[in-house]
Amino acid sequence: MYNQKEIAWVGEFFNAFSEQVNHSTVNFTYANADMLKSQSMPYSGDLPTSEDEIVVQESFLDSLGYSNELGQTINIPFSDGTTHDFKLTGILDVKTGDIGRYTAIISKELAEQQSGSNIVMDYYIGLKNAKNMSEGETASYANALAQQLEISNENVIVRSTYFNLKDENRGSDMLFYFLIGFITFVGSGIVIYSIFYISVASSIRNYGQLRTIGTTKRQIKKMVYREGKLLAAIGIPIGLVIGNVIGYLLVPDGWYGLTTFSVTVGVGLFAFMIVMLSIHAPVKKAAAVSPMEALRYSDYQGKMKESSVLHRNITPASLAKRNLSRQKTKSILTILSLSLGGVLVVLISTMLISYDGAAEARGREFPVGEFNIQLNANQSWDTADVSLAGLQQKDLLNADLVDAIESIDGVTGTKRWYYTDAEYRVNDYDDNWIYGFAKEDVSVLEENLIAGTVDYHELVSKNGIILINDTAENLSLSAQLGDEVEVDFLTKAGQTITKSYTIMGIVSNFSHPAFNMCFAMSAELMNEACEMDCSGTISVITETDKADTIEASLNQLIDGNSDLVMDTIEESITYYSRNQQLSFGALLIVAIIVVCFSFINLVNTTITNFLSRRQEIGMLQAIGLSKKQLMKMLCYEGVLYSAFATLVTLLLGAGLGFLCVQVVKTMNPYFDYSFPWLVILLYLAILLIVQFILISYTTGNLRKQSLVEQIRVTE
Question: Lower Cβ count inside 10 Å, N or C end of the chain?
């Protein structure tokens, strides 16, 4: 294989053994550098080459009380009471220790020493042109290579999921990143437009002066456009360089020169287009002003409605309202900018808090109970073998163990779960692992029934088996009612027997602590075929307030037996919740960036408004506006901005959040809409703090000038 020119890399993998270390499961695995790279398992240092060398996770070192210094000797206690010394040659950068499972990379020498002649190495092959090959082309090449190397067809697997995910992920990932980019561009565009709009409005008199000395409209346009192009020429390349550097640091192995160049050029052109579109309206405004209009231009002029009221009270509140209404474009832009960031934050926060990690843990691994004690069999789709049946032959989950568990203070009950690694064949499809279900599980199966029957006694009397439709569809297994399923069981005596069953029921799903399987049969038929108890897991039902003491007692109960492992619902909740947090974390960062854009826009608008109104404010103070009334007016303006932005944020953010949760719920049922009150209040508090800082700045600036200086101020 190593000499084939079509092969880019060959990954070697062997799951040597598992051990219980400090109540956590440690999988001791041999894997070469290509295998780790292909599985996105980066490491620092060197891979082990001799039997006393090892690479482990930093979190595992922490649990043992060691630093991450390479070259040191670490002592690992095994469940049989022995301890083993290893030289630390590298650190594996994989974050799984917080769910009670660790991975340790050992040398090939130690793996062979542990397994002897029984070692069965898995080889993962990466083809040089795999990205451009179809599944049929890959299968054809794999079969030809297998014949050439005299490898049987049973030992060759072409991963269909790779080709499915390759196309699906490419489209969904690109859509996801384009969505993030588009939202960022929209937020940036609003800020750019607002800044240029305010900048042009503030410079109208300057443009008018230029017009009086002969500058044409076209030249004014060129001048403003050139300013925008100059800023774009500086800012866009800086952004592209930073983006490329961050992208490379995040995924160095996925970096392709042509793709990078194409995306960089495309993003650069799109960003430049956003800038040009954003400054188009301000440019037209700058060019349209005449010299005479410019001389008497006020930043706050516009058509005002005639009123039949002969007199009206002027209050700080009415002044604030008029100030916002007479410059509607600027006010609307500022409110939209603030609202966009708020809507995104509310939307993403809604998705985060609407996810129920406990419900997913219950649905997937803990249908009942808070602890699962299970046989330490390899339950991976890729490396499933007969080890589970071998452990079931030992009768480890016996009545004595159950009695000991139920005698622990705080334990209110237990439940057995049945499954075995028997091999089945149906319609030219074969695979391993079958669920078993007890009589009390029938009600759950009935809730998910699609066709046929799940009657326990009828299935037992007629050798019936149930198809789990969701799993079957994911694995492209085609079967229907009446089809025959042949199953090879390993009996307690160590013999392999074959029995035939008829598909009598089809259910959508079966909530079970083991991983997803395609078939389920009654525990009575399973135990009868294997001539032994096929329990694989015991769920422990407890009083929640005694979880810590119960966990310690259960760990003590299974200590010293490496064939038993324990999972907790808390570990499972942490694992699933963290996955969701990672998924939405990137979006939340984008939302926060847009909020920052919004606040920049707010600061820019407020300060520009203040600078252009100093003379006006001075006139108001000259006719009796007090400092207290001035503060009130500025506060009212800030409150109006905040109130409108909050209203839009609440209506759009809550509405979009609800719709998104409903859409996601169709793909992941563990979402249930919750309104992010805390996020709304935090956003409003930050908005008010920013407004208070701006008011403090503007009033402080006014105190530094006399009334005469304010009235005399010129642009």
Answer: N
Tokens found for residue 59: 């979190």
Q: Is 533 helix (H, G, I), strand (E, B) or coil?
A: coil
Give the number of other Cβ atoms within 10 Å of residue 322's Cβ. Answer: 13
Separation in Å, CA 523 to CA 154, 387, 434, 454: 30, 19, 10, 13
Matching residue, tokens 């207290």: 628
Six token digits for residue 632: 């009130």
C-alpha span between 638 and 690 (Å, rounded): 9
CA distance 620 to 625: 5
Q: In this predicted structure, what is the pLDDT of residue 376?
A: 79
Give the model's confidence band at 160: pLDDT under 50 very low, under 70 low, under 90 confident, else very high: low
| Nearest alpha-carbon partner for 239 in 199, 185, 172, 201 | 185
- Four-point Cα dihedral 569, 575, 580, 583, nearest 10: -170
Give phi and psi for 261, each to the nearest 5.
-65, -45
- Token pair recorded at residue 467: 């198809």
- Other beta carbons within 10 Å of 417: 25
Q: What percent of the chain lies above the pLDDT cut of 90? A: 23
Tokens of 286: 């700058």
Q: Is 548 exposed, middle or buried (0-12, 13-18, 19+ CB in 10 A)?
A: exposed
Tell me how far CA of residue 121 lies from CA of 94, 114, 124, 391, in angstroms: 22, 13, 10, 22
DSSP state letters, 456-498? HHHHHHTTEEEEEHHHHHHTT----TT-EEEEEEEPTTS-EEE
Q: From its phi and psi, is residue 150 left (phi > 0), alpha (psi between -120 and 50) or beta?
A: left
pTM of the predicted model over 0.85 = no
Tokens 């042509």: give the residue: 258
Strand partners, 507: 449, 468
Residues near 162 by Cβ (< 8 Å), separated by ≥ 6? 130
Backbone angles phi, psi at 193, to 5 degrees: -60, -45
Token pair 């060691």 is found at: 66
Neighbours of 40 (CB within 10 A): 11
Calpha distance 88→60 (Å, rounded):
12
H-only helix segments in 355-467? 357-364, 387-392, 399-406, 442-447, 456-461
682: which residues sit within 8 A by CB, 6+ positions away?
none
Distance CA 11, CA 36 (A): 8
CB distance 464 to 549 below 8 Å: no
Tens of pLDDT, residue by residue over 390-436, are 888 889 999 999 999 999 999 999 999 999 989 999 988 888 889 99
Report d(CA 414, CA 440) in Å as an integer. Answer: 13
Q: Provide the b/e sequence for 95-110 (b: ≥16 CB within 10 Å).
A: eebebbbbbbbbbbeb
Run of H or E residues at 505? strand 496-507
Specify the DSSP class assigned to residue 369.
-
